[in-house]
Specification:
alpha+beta, Cyclase, START-like_dom_sf, Polyketide_cyclase/dehydratase
Amino acid sequence: MAEHTSSSITIEAAAADVMGVIADFARYPDWTGEVKEAEVLKTDGQGRAEQVRLVMDAGAIKDDQTLAYTWTGQHEVSWTLVKSQMLRSLDGSYLLAPAGPGATEVTYRLTVDVKIPMLGMIKRKAEKVIIDRALAGLKKRVESGPK
């Protein structure tokens, strides 16, 4: 099994508010630096995204990818790669947990396998940068309130 990278952050908001931002794919270009376009291709019976196309621009890596999402209860979402130009595989998740009154701890796990050769150490560092940027963007977006 591939090694994953994970990181956590505490956000001063209820879990439902955090998950609301995570589930609002159309707004990803507003708060994630790497996502330039997001389009929900398929939804489940509850209206949650099951398949999403993302156009990414992370500097050296530009990609058009489709991800399949699985929602577990109200506090966890995971995704896996359906198709991509640059990646062999991509598995990730957000897990939300209470962190005191009005606060939520968000843990982001990510495993990426690129089609181009890359040292494991460099790949994990890239994963860490992606995770940390996403968590910082998520925190800023949630705590600044709806726009």
